[in-house]
Structure formats: structure tokens, C-alpha cells
Task: inverse folding
């Protein structure tokens, strides 16, 4: 690969390779390799995310809410309480002031929902030959409650909870583009995971990660590689809303590879799983939570299908849904 | 203004209006209005900056070094020691891997120069119809040594030190674009101001700000508005390198409005100014430092010209040099 192509941005295998072979190799901080999306600095977690989604407005969300939720969720699954955020805007020349106002209001509303304060920012305007749609970067700082990114905390036999039905965000964006002949709309799952996590007992949580680009498949494969264990999922237990399932089938997408923006994978001890699930289901955004499977010894992600067969769930490769966040 | 145009990104009057009337108004945190580029969180300063410069490689610098220096400088002039940084890359499809490697190496080299550690990041790839050149966002965290953004600390009679000759960065970028018939090249002044500040006695520094987009003119007008005092500059004392002065004259730019990336304005008590200047001139990047003028009662920025006349130095407006950072 001498050219970076769109597959490098999909969150799958090529993204992973770009990050490891080009970015981390040349940054040359070996300790970054085993990190999640957030870094730990003393008692704080620190993270950043850029949002390049188009269209910038879509059902139940817009790029402003997405930027706040995305960064707050990275802090949350790192085991921190989101507290402070930066807001950096890169705006194409000719952008409507009215749309920027809507986005900024949405940033504030979303920040208030999780008690985050936007404390600093930056604004750039770029000529419209060079940039076609607005880009937002947020960086976030949060106080650590309990570090939830320790791969050593994952043990064979542990159970996997997924906090919501999957694949809604990616499909919402795809539909919102208006390129498909499909009646109705799908709402993004974008939400603040902290408003779910804050109701949980962190002592019962061993590991967490949000399943964004590349979906459940990407996140479980990445965790598997790093913890050197595997995952067995039960297809019959995986919750996908009917309209999402239908659209995925129609377009040939595996819902396990479709992006989410408000769905966390939580790994808990087998004897705690029912208690944790019960609590998750009572929390905000948790009513569709389910036990997705368990940790196995062999370093592979497998799905037990509804017909009883086993298939590998690979790290997604190639071009998935571009620009979903 | 119902459309955001390029003048909103120049760092002058329209940028200021966009930030105040659209962004801060809708974010609705009144306390942000009087801030510099960094926020204070307990003992820490927190800041962010996006870099959209083209070309991404230019004499003495590239977008990677610029991204690290820009954020480290925002922390420095806030009175903090830069410590941690995030690195978010937004890459157009088709970008050369080799160029990305050069940029990442440059990020690391520049981070090492100021003992900053890059601890987290994000990578997006955008189709090349939507984005033409690489964008980098950095956010930074630093420990506060002494807060240097207190407008109340500025008093009539205080002196202004500018830590280097001015206008080099903007002119370096303009030349590097290769659109001008001009032999030779100009080196950007991009550097880590902390490596200058760390040699100074912070007790003698009352206020600091770096003079980036919109140059000395923008930064002094902004400070003037917020401290409700004015500045009188002496043209004969302002240091501009000959080739920069020549190019500015040829193109009709006022060097006071041209961007810098390694130049700080420092405000000190009148009786300390000679001592501080002596020290600055001994520090890294400080050998061309000079006393530029003083704080006056009337809320205006004035220049005493070499011919003895007085002219207003306005907040720059309209399109300056686009995309210099």
C-alpha cells in the first residue's frame, strides 16, 4: 500500500494496518499499541475523535451531537466520567450560518445531557474546492472511575453483554443519504453511554469498549487480538431491529460489521452477568441489551448461527460504509 | 452574513464575529468569551487546534510540526508547561503513505523537542471529492506554571515584548505555494515557544499570547478589546527580516497582519522590561526579540510610524492569507 484509500477509514483491517504500520510505527511509542481510544493520565482519561459524517443532519442526530457523544463514549468505555471537551470546527467556505447554529445548539444540548462542559475550541474555514462538508473534532477529559481497558481482566468463560440492538447508526446514515429506494427512516442509536454506565456497579464490569466503525465484528476482533483469547457469539440472541435487519439483508451487509454510536460491549464475570444485564436493561438506552456470547480460549471470533453451525466473524475488510462518524 | 466565507477563517474581524455571534452565542457559556485559546481546568490548561495548511510541507516546517507547535504554544502562552497531546488525522483518499510517514515522524520529533507525549489519536479517511488535503487536529494538556491570560494584569505603562521578528510564517507559506515569481524561500518561524519561556522568570510575565492568524494586529486588537486598554507600537523598533519586508511591500501586506507560528507577545511591567528582554534574547528563538511598544489608556491599537506620525492598527478584516495554519 503506497496510497491511502477509503478502506483505510472503514474501521476494519486496513484502518488497523494504517494505524499500526504507519502511524504508531512512526510515532514510535510502543505503549500506545495496547490502548483503547482513550489514554490515562494520572486520574484522568483523555481522548479525541474527528467527525466527517455526511449528511450532517440525520434522524435522531447530527454531527454536533455525534461529536459530543462519540468523545464522551470513548471516555465512558475507558471507565471515566466525561467532564470537559474541546470543540474544533473546520467549515467549508459557503457553509450556511443557520446550519452551523443548529449544530452548535446541538453540541450544547448534548453536552448538557451528560454534564460535560465545552471549555475550548478552534474554528477554521477552508475554501470549498478543498473541503465539501463540515468536520468537527472533539477531545475530551474525564475522571477515571475504574479503568475498563485492561485486556488482562478478560478471562475464558466471561460473558459479553451488548448494551443495545446493533447496526442502527450505520444504516441510519446510509438511508439519510437518500440514495436508496427505501420508504421510512431509521434512527441513529447515537447516545451518551455514560448515562447508562452511571447506573451500573463498576466493580462488576471487567472490560468495556464501544462498537463504532466496523461494528461488533471489528471491536471483538481487535479485543481478541490484544487479549489473545476469543469470543463465541450466539446469533439467536443478537438483537437487530426488524427494519435494520431487512435493510442489511437487502444490501448484503452483516449487521455485526455495521457501525453503532451508542452501543457498548461489556465483559463481565459469568456469575455476575444476569445481575448486570438486569441493571443495564433498566438504564437509559439499555432496554434492548442482551448477552451476546462468551470468552473462549481460542483466539478467534466465532458465531454460532441460528441453524447451529459455526462461522468465523472476521475483522471487516474492504470498504464498509464510509464516513459514518 | 448568512453564508460563512473565507474571511471568517482569516483570524481577523470576521473570524471574531463568527466565533462570538454564532459559536459562543449558541454554545451559551458566557465565561468562554474572555478566554484565550486555552481553558484552565484545576491545575491544568487544555487547548485544541486544527491545521489545514497547504502545502503541507514548507521550509523549516510541515503540517505535523505545525500541529504540535501550535498546540504546545497555546498551552505555553496560557502559562502552562505542555505535557500531553492528542493527534487526530483526517486524510484524503489517495494520499501518499510516504508523505503521511514524513508527517508522523515530524510530529514525534517536534513532540520530543518540547517533551510532550502524544497519548491518543484518531484517524479518518475521506473521499477525495470531499477533501483535497490532509487535516490534523491536536489537543493538548499542560500543567499551569502561572496563568498568563488575565486581562486585569495588564496596566497602562506596561511594556510589550515581541519574542521574534514577525510575519515569517505567513510569507513562508505564501512562497511555498509557488504561485509567486520570487527567487529564494522564506523559512517559517514555527517553533516551540515553551523552549523560550522555560528560561524566563514567570514572576516577571504579566500576560502572554501568541500572534498567529491575523498577526500582531489581530492579537493586540483582541487583547485591547478585552482589557479595555490600548497599545502604542513604535514602527522603528519592529523587527521584520529584509526578505519578508520586501515581499510584504511587493504584495501590499502589512507585516503586522501576517501570521506567525513561533512569536509571542509578552506584557511586562515597565521596570522589568529590560531584564526580561535580555533574558528572552539569550533563549532559544529569542535572538530577534524587541520591545514593540507600551500599554496606553485609550482602547485602540496605534503605530507611531518611522516618520513620527500616528496611524491606527485595525483588526484585520477581509481575506488575508488563507490557510496558514
Result:
Amino acid at each position: 500500500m503506497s496510497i491511502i484509500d477509503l478502506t483505510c477509514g472503514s474501521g476494519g483491517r486496513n484502518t488497523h494496518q494504517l494505524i499500526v504500520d504507519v502511524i504508531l510505527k512512526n510515532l514510535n511509542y510502543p505503549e500506545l499499541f495496547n490502548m483503547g481510544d482513550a489514554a490515562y493520565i494520572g486520574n484522568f482519561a483523555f481522548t479525541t475523535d474527528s467527525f466527517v459524517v455526511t449528511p450532517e443532519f440525520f434522524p435522531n442526530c447530527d454531527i454536533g451531537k455525534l461529536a459530543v457523544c462519540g468523545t464522551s463514549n470513548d471516555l465512558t468505555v475507558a471507565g471515566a466520567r466525561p467532564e470537559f471537551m474541546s470543540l474544533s470546527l473546520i467549515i467549508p467556505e459557503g457553509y450556511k450560518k443557520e446550519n452551523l447554529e443548529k449544530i452548535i445548539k446541538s453540541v450544547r444540548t448534548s453536552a448538557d445531557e451528560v454534564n460535560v462542559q465545552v471549555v475550548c475550541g478552534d474554528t477554521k474555514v477552508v475554501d470549498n474546492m478543498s473541503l465539501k462538508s463540515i468536520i468537527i473534532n472533539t477531545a475530551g477529559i474525564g475522571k477515571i472511575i475504574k479503568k475498563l481497558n485492561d485486556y488482562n481482566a478478560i478471562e475464558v468463560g466471561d460473558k459479553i453483554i451488548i448494551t443495545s440492538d446493533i447496526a442502527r447508526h450505520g444504516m441510519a446514515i446510509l438511508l439519510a443519504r437518500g440514495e436508496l429506494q427505501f420508504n421510512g427512516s431509521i434512527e441513529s442509536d447515537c447516545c451518551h453511554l455514560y448515562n447508562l454506565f452511571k447506573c451500573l456497579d463498576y466493580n462488576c464490569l471487567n472490560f468495556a469498549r464501544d462498537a463504532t466503525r466496523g461494528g461488533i465484528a471489528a471491536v471483538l476482533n481487535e479485543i481478541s487480538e490484544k487479549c489473545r483469547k476469543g469470543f463465541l457469539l450466539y446469533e439467536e440472541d443478537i438483537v437487530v431491529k426488524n427494519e435494520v435487519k431487512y435493510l442489511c439483508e437487502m444490501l448484503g451487509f452483516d449487521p455485526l460489521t455495521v457501525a453503532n454510536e451508542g452501543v457498548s460491549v461489556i465483559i463481565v464475570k459469568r456469575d455476575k452477568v444476569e445481575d448486570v444485564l438486569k441493571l443495564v436493561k433498566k438504564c437509559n438506552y439499555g432496554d434492548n441489551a442482551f448477552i451476546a456470547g462468551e470468552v473462549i480460549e481460542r483466539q478467534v471470533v466465532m458465531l454460532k448461527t441460528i441453524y447451529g453451525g459455526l462461522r468465523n466473524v472476521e475483522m471487516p475488510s474492504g470498504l464498509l460504509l464510509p464516513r459514518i462518524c
Q: What stands out?
A: Chain A touches chain B through 73 residues (CB under 8 Å). Chain A has a mean pLDDT of 93. The longest strand of chain A covers residues 80-92.
